[in-house]
Request: fold
Amino acid sequence: MGSVGTPIGAAAVLTALAAASLLIHHIVVRPKLAGTTRLKLLLGLAVLPFIAAVTTTASGMQRTTEREFCGSCHVMETHLTDLVDPTSLSLAARHSRNPMMGPHACYTCHADYGMLGYPMTKLKGMSHVYYYYLGGYRNWDLRRFHAEVRVAKPFPNANCKQCHSGTLSSFSNVREHLGMQEELESNRVSCASAGCHGVAHRFSKRPEEL
Amino acid sequence: MRRLLAFIARWPTERALRVACWIGLLALALMIAGVVLGTPLAVVASMSVAQGLGVLACLLFGVSIAADGAARRGGGK
Reply:
């Protein structure tokens, strides 16, 4: 089920239905183009659809941050299954159990940080849709997907630092953090890499990557 | 200007408005589908194709109303 249960989703559907009823009335009744008809058409073709478009976009953008949305493509099923597994100890699952991330866990971790993080993440997300529907991923089985597909760019440590600021002594006093300060800041070494905090989605990696 | 007036005089207002209504209905259906289904393709279509169709329907409405207004003014003179 989509986001029709949310206030913005319900507003989108109601506005669109109101506009649709005006348009159907015009198609069926075929009234003369008097002042009232113009006003009804203005509402049905411009004002209400504009409101519907704005609310639909808001609802759609919200929907794209939900983990069920990401997991709705079959190649992401195992990622979603792992996230919601209360016994999983993977880095992703442990973070997903945090209520701050829970329902939006994929987006919270993978969205780029910064002022343009939100729109750029959405734009890049379109490439996922392209690869899935037109790039052949739709016909791949999970084994092939896990073997061949990797994250498009190294996972930026800035995304981890949205929550783990790294300013407390409990972070900076750790020997490994001290020794790799430059590599961590320049993103040459990811927090979520083998030997550090481990990869986030272990099941999707080859043994030599763990 | 003459070309524009000739174009407006030939504009099929009633039919264009009905076409605009059908296109508008299609756009609204896509928007509703995006919200109700919530699947990637439906959501993407509701935020792209649907809005393009909505703009097209709105433009058809605007041109039709303008053409009707011009025709009325022309007929009144």
Notes: The longest helix of chain B spans residues 49-76. The CA atoms of residues 28 and 50 of chain B lie 7 Å apart.
